[in-house]
Amino acid sequence: MFTKRSIRIVIADDHGILREALRSFLHQQPEFEVVGEATTGQEVLEQCEALNPDIVIMDISMPSMNGIECAERLRKQNPDTRILALTSYDDDEHLKECLLAGVNAYVLKKSFSEDLKLALLTVFRGGTYIDAAITNRLRSLLRDDHHHGGLENNLSEREIQVISLIARGLSLKDVSSQLKISVKTVETYKARSLEKLNLRSRAELVKYALEHGWLQSNYTN
After folding, report:
1. 124-163 tens-digit pLDDT
2. CA 77/CA 81 separation, integer angstroms
3. I need a labelling partner for 7 at 20 to 30 A (CA). Which of 33, 54, 55, 60 fits?
4. Which one is the CATH code of 144-211: 2.30.30.40, 1.10.8.10, 1.10.10.10, 3.40.50.300?
C-alpha cells in the first residue's frame, strides 16, 4: 500500500461515462478510494464540505459554476483539499487561469491513465503536476508576463533551490531537511527571493518556476 489509508477522491464531471471510467480505473488502484461524485460546481463544494477529500478530480466545464470558479472557492472552503483539473482544453488561457485559481495539477483527458495516477500521487505528496503534452509550451505562455522578465538574474543558486522546492509544494521543514539548512534560513531565503522577484502568491511562484524550468525533477540535484 502507498499509505496507511487510501487517498480519498471526489470525481467531478457532468459526463456520466467519464465518471464511470474514472471510478473503474481508480477502484483498480489500491492507493485510491472514490468517496464521492459531483456533476456541478456547487455539488463539488457540497461534497467537499461534507467529505473533506484529499483530492478532487474536476472538469473545467461544468453546469452552474465552471471549474475555475469552483477551484477558487474550494481553495478558501477546503484549503487542505488538492485540486486536479482533468480537461480537454490544452489552450494557453485555460491553463493560465487554472494556475492562478490555485489548481495543483492540470491533466488532459487524452492522456494515459498512468499519467493521471502519477499526477494524483504527485499532488497528494504536496507537489505540482502539469501534463507533459503542454509543459513545453509553458515558457512561451508565461513569458508574456513581462513584469518578471530578467529578475531571476538577481537570485543566488541557493535562493533558486529554496523557492523551486517551495513551488513544488514542499513545506519549509521539508526544504530545510532536503537542503540541510535551518528552517529560519529557509524562511529568510524565501522572503528575500519573493521580494526580488516581485511575487506575492503561491500561484505566481508556481508560474515563475514553471517558466524557468525549476520544477524539473532533477533541478536541485
Report:
1. 988 778 887 776 555 444 444 444 445 555 778 788 888 8
2. 9
3. 60
4. 1.10.10.10
Please give the CATH architecture assigned to the domain spanning 7-135: 3-Layer(aba) Sandwich (3.40)
For the chain, give every domain's residue range: 7-135, 144-211
d(CA 89, CA 151): 31
What 26-35 contacts at long range (C-beta under 8 Å, 24+ apart), as own/partner pairs, is 29/117, 30/1, 30/2, 30/6, 31/1, 31/2, 31/3, 31/6, 31/7, 31/117, 31/120, 31/121, 32/6, 32/7, 32/120, 33/6, 33/7, 33/8, 33/9, 34/9, 34/10, 35/8, 35/9, 35/10
